[in-house]
Amino acid sequence: MSFHRHLNMYDFEALIKAKQDGKEKQIKIVDLREPYERRKKGALTVPFALHLTSSDLVKMTRMTAKDFSKTYGVEKLKKGDVIMLICEGGDRVESAYGYLREKGFKHVFGVTAPIEQLTFLHQYRVRGDDDDDL
């Protein structure tokens, strides 16, 4: 499956900057990486992102909004939300994109660049105790 709607890394950077400035509040960024991927030394953190794995998205479509919020601590995504998907390499984005579109989410975009190529995120890199040169 190929993306019908995608966002390149420059547009994604502009989106992050707009969210930092208090704009684009209606856009939901979903980081599909597994928790261990987000925690590992040197990993990039995506500001403003909801941390939902691919399996969490499947659970989300089967849960009530109240149960989802209670379980995950975030508001359940709505079919009218504008959703930006990102992951380590892109495969999960493609899969989640297709799944969400199939479930009726109309405004889904995938970030086409692997997360490590998003150089503007390097300021958000996870640091370890011995990271003097990062």
TrEMBL record:
InterPro entries registered for this protein in UniProt: Rhodanese-like_dom, Rhodanese-like_dom_sf
GO cellular component: mitochondrion
Molecular function GO labels: thiosulfate-cyanide sulfurtransferase activity
Occurrences of domain Rhodanese (ranges): 23-116
PROSITE patterns to which the protein is assigned, alphabetical: RHODANESE_3
Name this protein carries in UniProt: Rhodanese-like domain containing protein, putative
Organismal lineage: Eukaryota, Discoba, Euglenozoa, Kinetoplastea, Metakinetoplastina
